[in-house]
Specification:
This protein is α+β, with helices and mostly antiparallel strands. It has a single domain, classed as FomD barrel-like fold, CATH 2.40.380. The chain contains three helices and eleven strands, in the order βββββββββββααα. It has a seven-stranded mixed beta barrel with strand order 1-2-3-6-7-8-10. Strand 6 and strand 7 form a beta hairpin. 31% of the residues are buried. The model has no long low-confidence stretch (mean pLDDT 97). It catalyses: a ribonucleoside 5'-diphosphate + H2O = a ribonucleoside 5'-phosphate + phosphate + H(+); a ribonucleoside 5'-triphosphate + H2O = a ribonucleoside 5'-diphosphate + phosphate + H(+). Keywords: Hydrolase, Magnesium, Metal-binding. InterPro entries: DUF402, FomD-like_sf, Ntdp-like, SA1684. Belongs to the Ntdp family. Its EC number is 3.6.1.15, 3.6.1.6.
Length: 176
């Protein structure tokens, strides 16, 4: 498997379980790239939805993708603190074209005070029926929701104090 190169930019492609392209982030700077971990940074990047609509992210973000975990984490740096958006998803793959993963609808939004909400349970159930998510995927995702909640409560990984600040500093260094 190819490994993203630090200091270069890549696209991020999010797919749905049925294989259709869901969303594309145009440009993310690779801050750390190994076969099992990619940490990236972006700011005001163009995002293209599956229907062709585009929008631009509003704030700097640090993205955390793992090759064995069924979630990814985006830390968004805002005036009033760091907000996290966590996607329950397949582990990522990288193929020189883009970093790719399957988005499984469930999300956790984490606020600067580390309170959080599980989102999109209705959408998950609807897509689970429509796209026929196998029971094994459902079990994996439920275990990973639990793992993500433990990480949030324990301030582990990207939720650790200073994690986002340290990687944002590296992002700013590469951008200079």
């Amino acid at each position: 498997m190819a490994v993203p190169v630090e200091g270069e930019t890549l696209q991020i492609h999010s797919y749905k379980h049925d294989g259709h392209l869901h969303r594309v982030w145009d440009e993310t700077m690779v801050l750390k790239g190994t076969k099992n971990l990619v940490i990236g940074g972006n700011d005001r990047t163009i995002v293209t939805e599956s229907d062709g609509r585009t929008w631009v992210t509003r704030e700097p973000a640090i993205c955390y993708f793992h090759g064995e975990l069924w979630f990814n984490i985006i830390g968004m740096i805002r005036e009033d603190g760091i907000y996290y958006y966590c996607n329950l998803s397949s582990p990522f793959v990288y193929d020189n074209e883009a970093l790719k993963y399957i988005d499984y609808d469930l999300d956790i939004k984490v606020f600067p005070d580390m309170t959080f909400n599980l989102l999109d349970e209705d959408e998950y159930e609807q897509h689970r029926r429509q796209m026929g998510y196998p029971d094994v995927i459902d079990q994996i995702l439920q275990r990973n929701v639990d793992k993500l909640v433990r990480w949030i409560r324990q301030r582990k990984g990207p939720f650790a104090p200073d994690f986002i600040d340290i990687w944002y500093e590296r992002y700013l260094t590469y951008r200079r």
